[in-house]
Design goal:
The protein has about 425 residues and is an alpha+beta fold. The chain is about 55% helix and about 10% strand. It contains 16 helices and 5 strands. A hairpin with a 4-residue loop joins strand 4 and strand 5. It starts with a helix and ends with a helix.
């Protein structure tokens, strides 16, 4: 029971961290660097107490009362409308809807326009009310000329930019909601399924069979999985999926690979992906076959212990980057994108090259001392009868604390900086 509880603990850590990244990404997408506050919607819903981000393609906020009941919905016209310039700049408008998805009204959220122009628009009795009672879909398909939506006298360019922005924003979400992507299974998905079947045989098949086919299998991994398909797991991929969602319909083979890489070691303790799928691990083993024995180095125990901290440290760094969406390409931390040669960056190629050179002197050097993706997969792996709560489990709890802190304090910090908190 202790081992089961420990595995459930590890699963919970990964699941909670993924949820925190996803939820903060939704809040960042719906709120951006100019969060909507409850007071802005109280004109339309006086009983409003808080706002809850919506993870759907609408990218808005549910308006809730103190008991958590949904009163309505609010959406910003930014970022889709941020390039619609009026007279002196763009205007971010709030579109407030009721529970039946009918517009209650519009309100200016932020704008680069002059105060006089904005005052002319907000005091006009007709312009902002032209949208009232229209459903989301009707407003998205609205013909502005036919509906008689005209510019406000004295602020024509600004008001029409607002009108076009409202339509564009609602139209943008309407198109995504009405046309969800269909399941697409291509040759890469079929190929990945075949690779997973082969990996399962290599992991759980007869020992004689595995010894006979190990070399051809490693060559296949480097050639097909690496250079042909290019479907490799990486922190860039896990971070992107946590923030934006899992591409079940567009890349089912890759999703199946990721699920297998996490679930199989969690249940069986067998490192399926690292030992039997990863082309970079296979490349290091292939180099080990041709490396002169005299090249192999034996690192001091202290150096080994120090280097073993690098993968979890990179995993923590990747988590912070995914949470805060900072302008850092996580692909540059790992060598995996180097196998897609036509689009590989310099940093990725450098990491790949250094990792392979290092493996000529220290077996599996990158896997042991450099791979944050491997650290994640190793964390969830069961250890059998000897499994105990260890330093990696304590470190994971620390990473969870970091994720919780950044999740709950990111947007309040933005509000405080802007003086609206």
């Amino acid at each position: 029971m202790k081992r089961v509880a420990l595995q459930l603990y590890r699963f919970a850590i990964v699941a909670i961290v993924a949820w925190l990244v996803r939820d903060l990404a939704v809040r960042q997408r719906t709120q951006g660097d100019s969060p909507v506050v409850v007071d802005e919607v109280k004109l339309f819903f006086p009983e409003a107490a808080r706002l809850r981000p919506d993870s759907s393609a609408r990218d808005g906020l549910f308006i809730l009362d103190r008991e958590g009941r949904e009163l309505g919905y609010v959406v910003r016209t930014f970022p889709p409308a941020q390039d619609l310039i009026g007279y002196a700049g763009a205007t971010d408008t709030l579109v407030v809807l009721d529970r039946d998805w009918k517009i209650r009204g519009l309100r200016i959220h932020t704008s680069d326009e002059t105060e006089d122009y904005l005052k002319s628009i907000t005091t006009d009795r007709r312009f902002l009310k032209k949208w009232n009672s229209l459903t989301w879909d009707a407003a998205a398909e609205l013909d502005l000329d036919a509906a008689g939506i005209e510019g406000v006298s004295g602020a024509t360019m600004t008001s029409m930019a607002i009108a076009r922005g409202v339509k564009l924003r609602l139209q943008h979400a309407h198109a995504e909601i009405s046309a969800p992507p269909a399941l697409h299974i291509g040759w890469r998905d079929a190929g990945m399924l075949a690779v997973l079947i082969g990996a399962a045989l290599m992991a759980f098949g007869p020992a004689d069979w595995k010894r006979r086919w190990k070399l051809p299998w490693q060559i296949l991994l480097v050639g097909y999985v690496g250079f042909v398909a290019g479907d490799l797991l990486a922190m860039k991929l896990f971070g992107g999926w946590a923030r934006a969602g899992v591409p079940w319909t567009n890349a089912p083979g890759l999703v199946l690979l990721a699920a297998s890489a996490l679930v199989v070691p969690w249940v069986t303790g067998a490192p399926l992906y690292c030992h039997h799928v990863c082309p970079h691990g296979a490349a290091q083993e292939l180099l080990g076959r041709i490396r002169p024995r005299r090249w192999q180095l034996t690192l001091p125990p202290g150096a080994v212990r120090g280097l073993e901290y690098l993968p979890p440290a990179l995993l923590g760094f990747s988590l912070v980057m995914a949470l805060l969406a900072l302008p850092f390409d996580l692909a540059g931390l790992e060598p995996f994108a180097a196998y897609v040669v036509r689009s590989a960056g310099i940093a990725t190629l450098a990491v790949a090259g250094l990792g392979l050179v290092a493996s000529l002197f220290v077996p599996q050097a990158y896997c042991r001392f450099g791979c944050p993706t491997g650290a994640l997969l190793n964390f969830v792996r069961a250890r059998g009868a000897t499994d105990r709560f260890s330093r990696r489990d304590a470190a994971a709890l620390g990473l969870l604390a970091v994720a919780v802190t950044l999740h709950w304090h990111y947007l309040p910090l933005i509000l405080w900086v802007k003086g609206v908190g």
